[in-house]
Amino acid sequence: MSHVENVDDVVFDPNLTKPDVLVLQNLVADIREYQERDEQLQRRRDKEGSDKEKGQRHRDAATITALAALNDPKHALFEPTVFSQVDTGDIRLPPSIDAWIFRPYVRVARSIVRVETDVVMLTHLLLYFSTSVPSAMFLFWKFTWVHGLLHFIMQVSYMGTYTLMMHQHIHMRGILNKRLSILDSLFPYITDPLMGHTWNSYYYHHVKHHHVEGNGPDDLSSTIRYQRDNVLHFLHYTGRFFFLIWLDLPLYFIRKGWPAFAIKAAFWELSWYTTLYTLYQHNPKATFTVFLLPLLLLRSGLMLGNWGQHAFVDHDEPNSDYRSSITLIDVPVSTLAPTGFPIGPG
Question: Where is this region: Disordered (predicted)?
């Protein structure tokens, strides 16, 4: 934004969250304050420098206070995220629906989720269990290609937000209140395969391996040894993940001296492959549509994401958490799920 010639031309993406907008508005105000080209006004600002700095500090403090209020359950301005595509404060409903349905739901949901800001987690769980699960069950009972295609399209629309939700789940070891820990630990065994994930593999690969290595030389998802504009390198990278991750990840844990993780990672990955084989023998069409297609699509998407995001790994110091950092600001990705800005190796 420092290269913007006219700060009035800055346009915010309508999908940005309210906290994003507050921060960016504050930055725009800073730019506007320093970008005046008129020499006479510039000289006047030089004389009034101390007042300008006081105003800037006051504006920064006000922005920080507003951001804290939005995330403080005890504050009157607190806004939990209820839906992924709209800020709660911007929701406009008929008074009766707002009073008798929406607000009671938010109130109850805040007591169910692990963090009160994350009502959207429960919203999406209810969505998946009221659409994906019964649709998949119906396909195994009475399959049609029209239903199968529509089901797959629906799952594609869910995969991004679900994966971000599970990113929160695996890092926090749950998204629901701890009194619901049994439900919290069991629901992924139902929903993960519907969204293209194999049982527990995301946890072992992402938390126990990827975040330990941080895209460094021992990271199985690192692209540091590949030429990014080489098609054969890309095919090798994706092909190895597709066909050998069931072996590569356990071997990684063995090399690191963590045999228990190796056994668990292999057990869950191979257990799901066995389950897929069994289901395919019973109902190949439903298994292909409900489980295999999402698995192929999600893993393709994850590898494409790695290929792009990991482009900033520092070649000279690949193990550095600072020289390999990626910081994304002013992007609407936070509307998908409240995972925050990715600072550091992804």
Answer: 38-59
